Amino acid sequence: MFDLMARHWWVLAVRGGFAILFGVVALIWPAITVWALVLLFGAFALADGVVAVLLALRGTTGAPRGLLALSGVAGIALGVAAIGWPGITAFVLLMLIAAWAVATGVLEIVAAIALRRELRGEWAYLLSGAISVLFGVLLFAWPVSGALAIVWVIGLFTILFGGAMVGAAFRLRRLGQEGASRHGVGTAAQH
Fold first, then answer.
1. 102: which residues sit within 8 A by CB, 6+ positions away?
2. Of 90, 92, 103, 129, which one has the fewest beta carbons inside 10 Å?
3. In whole angstroms, what is the distance from residue 151 CA to residue 36 CA?
4. Number of structural domains, the chain?
5. Whole domain around residue 57: which residue ranges?
């Protein structure tokens, strides 16, 4: 299972890259309207959900397939709802994002714990889940007023979250290469 994850390390990096891109866009255009934020978030959640469902169907990660599929379906549903209902209020959007962040964070923590025997350095995946849960809890506990503040909080969160995912992906890649070197198996990049 670890070998399969190591070969597909780039999928986690792509997910992290999309999160970073979303965060940067939110910070570059802080005066973005709630409607545009809903569409951006909807596109991000939809893309992340599709990737998670595809990974679950292909079994290309060590995460429990059912949990990954559930996370993906939740992302797709949230993305479709956000895109189909762009007149959503800032508060409702904030609560939806908080719920999504907590749910995906918990699922990532569960996956990291499930992988602890097979993957050294699962701490990075655990960290991305913890950051997600913390972000969601803070949004529930402290509903930020105003679309500008929401954009900044979301932008900063997604950059941190994406950075943790990219870091985990490259750590997974390095561990996979180390494992291949120990077993005398070369990759195309090594030849």
1. 132, 133, 136, 137, 140
2. 92
3. 11
4. 1
5. 2-177
Q: Is 89 inside any structural domain? A: yes
Residue with tokens 């979301």: 154
Neighbour-count burial of 87, counting CB atoms closer than 10 A to its CB (0-12 exposed, 13-18 middle, 19+ buried): exposed
The answer to the question of residue 40 being in a domain is yes
pTM over 0.85: no
Residue with tokens 């908080």: 98
183 domain-assigned: no
